[in-house]
Amino acid sequence: MKDELDDLRSVWNTAQGADPQINTAEFYQIIAQKAKDVYDTLRKNLRKDLIINIITMALTIGVLSCFKAKNNGMYYALCQMVVLIFVPYLFFYYSLLHVLNKVVAPDSKLIHSLQRMVAHWEQASMIIIWLGILLSPAFFLSVIWFLGCVEHIDTNAFYNRPWYFFALLMLFSSLAASVGFKMWMEYLYGKHIITLKACLTELEG
């Protein structure tokens, strides 16, 4: 966040150099515009992320549906896998978009909107990471169920493994999911939240 603060101070110093009479109100407008730009970028990234996830999910469902099923359990398992992935993501998408729409409302005060956005991001990101950790074992079991219902796939040897083998696999899947979620969210949204935190620090300083 230090780099973001330095950038904002550089804008302030440049503006003062161009016009020594620039006042706090004008600097407030600079910060407000910066925050608005970040909000717009976050909204675009959310929509892009949603489209990518829908396309990926549709392709995955299409490919997996092509497997020859032993019974209807394969389709139930596939539905369960989709629900376990997509429902948490929809929660994240809707909640973040909902707050974005609130903070950019014309009557929204800048400092309050920044505080609300930053607080919601930290809360939502923590919830989605924990959901990833907690739901990963269920997703793992859904995959095993799916494979057991596919023709020409013998899962008996896999099922006969000791219990701790499954426990370790579930632990690994939970850790992998939490790291993957965090990296993806930081890549798409993290740097923009850092910018908002820098704006908030400047206004509160």
Key attributes of the depicted protein:
single chain; 6 helices; elongated; mainly alpha; 205 residues
How does this structure look, described?
- With 205 residues, the chain is mainly α.
- Helix content is 85%, strand content 0%.
- α3 runs antiparallel to α4.
- It has one domain.
Q: Care to give the gist of this entry?
A:
This protein is mainly α and about 200 residues long. It has helices spanning about 1-20, 25-65, 75-105, 110-150, 155-160, 165-205.
What percent of the residues sit in helical stretches (DSSP H or I)?
over 70%
Bulk shape = elongated
Mean pLDDT: 77
Number of domains: 1
pLDDT under 50 segments (min length 5)? none
Number of helices in the DSSP assignment:
6
Order of helices and strands: HHHHHH
Classify the secondary structure makeup into a structural class. mainly alpha
What gap, in angstroms, lies between the N and C termini?
14 Å
Describe the biggest sheet? none
Total DSSP E strands: 0
Strand content: under 5%
How would you summarize the topology of this molecule?
Elements: H1 2-18, H2 24-65, H3 73-103, H4 110-148, H5 156-159, H6 163-204
